[in-house]
């Protein structure tokens, strides 16, 4: 027999940290004035313990993945939708999260009925979007509901094969007195939906809002609960969209899918290298092509840099698409090892197309672009670079160099300046590969 008691707690609305008293600053995440009083009913009952199972006795189905009929979405998911998986999709408002899922549901209706739970839009609004996307199916069931208990009750009656929650911030449980979108509500609702999906083997897609700093709103534990976390990235001023997997229990993390937003919805981009290089200026200083790797996908991307004398007392440093601190480190290497006096220069670095790259292989491209703009000498437009740079200016070898070179050859590039440690393994390719031991050698090859 269970009984319950009520507790008053103060919870941080940023990370979910709980305290018996109000605090001005959260000791966990450091946010100020983020604690809100919440009343929690704690149920006291005997906990049932699961029985241990030997690993050798566990069986699983090898054919449990299902395609969404959108190959770029399947790539980000690790090859398709896994039965009973919970996928969290976050992104800026209007970036295309609901559009992507509605298009994906069209391909998943082959499994049976799919339930689309909308807490923000009316069925009429979703119908208008579906007509624009040419999504027509009797197997898509719309449910305008925000009550967690109501959603689970309807799902048990319909027995859908796929469930979409749009969005988790609007769903609330009647067992909690706190408002929808609070830490307690998001954690409780996500946990119960996850248990429901695992119990019945139903793929569950959850849409989550993002905060000003780009992270999914709610407690960090939300990302730990789900199996896969996908971020929809891209500038709303450009048609390109990047779907990036930052966590995936069923595939590679950092895998990406590339889309282009059009009037009829999201279109797949089969060859993103050509897309990101389209409109590239030829023989212009500050433009360098790098062979990057996102997950398992090689991509040829343009990195631009602009170096100019500052008009202010303190020079500006701006980095878009690459790590700001990494750019400052590489500028210091140029200053110290090559004697380029950049201390009184404004420096701007940008990855064309709105892509975000965080691998060290782009170090050589950043340094080459900055040096090209500083010297006012263009880099050969048919040349690409890659390589990690150390603090002493050495050019270090990177992984999967052959895959990068093959992608460069596919789009017609002729020459590559790479680390000497990689050059020896790239002989016999159609591209002229030149190895360099340090930054000074690499820049001599590029500019002389």
Properties at a glance:
single chain; 448 residues; alpha/beta; Rossmann fold; Ribosomal Protein S5, domain 2; 3 domains; 9-stranded mixed β-sheet; 7-stranded mixed β-sheet; 12 helices; 23 strands
Please report the distance between the alpha carbons of the first and last residues: 83 Å
Task: Give the C-level CATH assignment of the largest domain.
Answer: Alpha Beta
Number of separate strands? 23
Mean pLDDT: 87
Largest sheet: 9 strands, mixed
**Percentage of β-strand residues:** 25-35%
- What is the CATH superfamily classification of the largest domain? P-loop containing nucleotide triphosphate hydrolases
Radius of gyration: 26 Å
**What is the total number of structural domains?**
3
The neighbouring-strand order within the major sheet is 8-7-9-10-6-11-12-13-14
